[in-house]
Amino acid sequence: xxxxxxxxxxxxxxxxxxxxxxxxxxxxxxxxxxxxxxxxxxxxxxxxxxxxxxxxxxxxxxxxxxxxxxxxxxxxxxxxxxxxxxxxxxxxxxxxxxxxxxxxxxxxxxxxxxxxxxxxxxxxxxxxxxxxxxxxxxxxxxxxxxxxxxxxxxxxxxxxxxxxxxxxxxxxxxxxxxxxxxxxxxxxxxxxxxxxxxxxxxxxxxxxxxxxxxxxxxxxxxxxxxxxxxxxxxxxxxxxxxxxxxxxxxxxxxxxxxxxxxxxxxxxxxxxxxxxxxxxxxxxxxxxxxxxxxxxxxxxxxxxxxxxxxxxxxxxxxxxxxxxxxxxxxxxxxxxxxxxxxxxxxxxxxxxxxxxxxxxxxxxxxxxxxxxxxxxxxxxxxxxxxxxxxxxxxxxxxxxxxxxxxxxxxxxxxxxxxxxxxxxxxxx
Length: 428
Ligand SMILES: [Zn+2]
What we know:
This protein has 428 residues and is of the alpha/beta class. It is 51% helix and 8% strand. It is globular, with a radius of gyration of 22 Å.
């Protein structure tokens, strides 16, 4: 993608030279090792668009690795023709072009790719792509074995910094779910106080390991409109299931007083540990989920109460851009994170980067997060799209004489690197 603005090429070239912080990723291992060329096309988030353009039976057939890829090709060809212009498809196109020299998804192209498919399980090859992309650090949300975090033996993928994955800690609804956390510290939990002590000790251990943030994506399962229940309400739920290990508090309403209470408690811990909190807002991976429950505006009361917690609101709250900008403009404790959004909807992001420049202090914006698991090839493509989006938006603002080219470069630097480096205290 490009812009007709006169300074675009200059600005885009500058963005290419910048180191970038990958503000959000899920790589808990290096990969992938592609088994067939269809897998290169149908990977990352693109299957969601193919699913949306077909249905459950066809997407299952397309991803059935037991069948030879040539047998699945006619279906892929038909679906590609219906999906090939989305942001996710852009990622596939760029991967094919950059790593295989192929311009389009055709049978002949896939045939040529056979026998030279990437094997990124090799850590050096994996890191080589990060190096080429100038990814200086990546914040990893990987749900690790907490014992390995606490004893320091967890191995992170290259350039990774740990995020503490929060949802499991506050969505507990049975004795076993509570005790699974107790087992990390070889402790038997019998009360809400003992559970909170265990959680804090685990979080402190994670910070000691090097964790730079908390991360919570509960919006997949529950609305972001957290209430503020009393401790007694929460404790009643907790005690009810703890006294009989066969019980399970009913989702969602039966467990909500406890879930909401714990979330607030953990935000207090985040404040005391001085770790920022990354929150999923907006669009969700996969298809068939309820978007209304994920609108960041649902967090208003949380943001107003926890003024000393630094929040990083994810995914450009797609498609609720206006609310998202408002929250950052209005609350000193809110930063905006374009992770994943740059490929969900590149045009939305180009417009939003421009709008953000004119409405939100530019020091509160994080421009890139790959949000894949493994897939260093796709992280590269995603970074190229993010750099495009930022360069297009800023070049057009320069063209409109809103700011000068040097100032635009300064903004690009902060959006791709400087702000995240400071916000997450990466010390780069
Ligand atoms: Zn994610």
